[in-house]
Known about the structure:
The protein is of the alpha/beta class. It contains eight helices and seven strands; from the N terminus they run αααβαβαβαβαβαββ. It is globular and about 45 Å long.
Amino acid sequence: MQSADPSWSDVDDYIVDHLIGEDLALDACLAANAAAGLPPIDVSFTQGRMLELLARANRAENILEIGTLGGFSAIYLARGLGDSGKLVTLELEPDYAAVARRNLDNAGQGSKVDILVGEALATLHGLVEQGRAPFDLVFVDADKQNYAAYLDYALKLARPGALLIFDNVVREGRVLEPNSDYPKVPGTRKLYEMLKNHPQLDATAIQTVGAKKWDGFLIAVVREE
Ligand code: DHB
Ligand code: MG
């Protein structure tokens, strides 16, 4: 029913109804995450679908995700991969990774996805050392304090033309607070500072409203020179 005073969330429902539709695997993923006590901080359905479409539009065959949580965004990213594509997703918490593994398998995406458990910075160091195939898309949705370090690794691991996407770069406008005591803001501001006139990256950030309130994504493309 239409509300007299539609909220961002109502509009998200309308968008999902028309453009995305019901998705039992994703509903089951969110239910399993809640049952396992994971924090409900996944991307929204509309945002997840955007990630899938960006992966597909960029013909991604290798995707890196930092911050798996219960695998909600990983399901979308895996769906955006080509048939022989691979998603590598990094998660600190073994319990979260186990939930994500079940969710990805249940969604029929498990064979495309490696979940690497541990400190992301150590795992990223390992991926660089191993000379892991360059990634076409990197999605960062983990501890904001390390966003600048994740950008450094993303640049080491991404191919020219790759898309780098960072979640939660607006935080209801708190990104403007230079001395914020909100712990997630300084790391995000450092990311913006690094991207100012960056020699290898062209970037923008898009503010979003919806089921996840007021936040945003930062999107950067590695220059091809
Ligand atoms: C938080 C983290 C996220 O990645 C997100 O999308 C929303 C909230 C958090 O840590 O509070
Ligand atoms: Mg997030």
